[in-house]
Amino acid sequence: xxxxxxxxxxxxxxxxDEQIRQWIAERRLNAQSLVMSEGAVxxxxxxxxxxxxxxxxxxxxxxxxxxxxxxxxxxxxxxPQTTNTFAMVGMxxxxxxLFSSCCCxxxxxxxxxxxxxxxxxxxxxxxxxxxxxxxxxxAGIILSALSILLGIIIMxxxxxxxxxxxxxxxKGKF
Length: 174
Prior knowledge:
By secondary structure, this protein is of the alpha+beta class. The chain contains five helices and six strands, in the order E-E-H-E-E-H-E-H-H-E-H.
């Protein structure tokens, strides 16, 4: 007699070896299905039971095609990629500076965005494939630079708008 752990994580059984054979034939169980024999204390893959090995090998097609799944995790010796924090903060500061450039010329967000983005880009280049976020760092640099440019344009336009008043004040003094 056996107990089977279903795909729904429910326990089924006790079931006979004939029932297991029927479920294998119906493709309800495969080599990775977890089964516990009577008296056992741990779940084991069905493929570890020799009494079902011939049925499981007959069930597998000659050429098994694996679906295109991402790898389960980093293999031995690989470092998982993380997003560079400076690049992310630089991009966020660049976005905030662009929206705040109309009222306060984007300061200090544009300067912080520029600094953080450049630091992040330099870290990503020096660490090669260990970190990602190069696109975020570049976006932060572009957005921060646009914010600085927009702030300068707004200051020039503001000064140009006040220029006639300044000329009148200057004529009054001379």
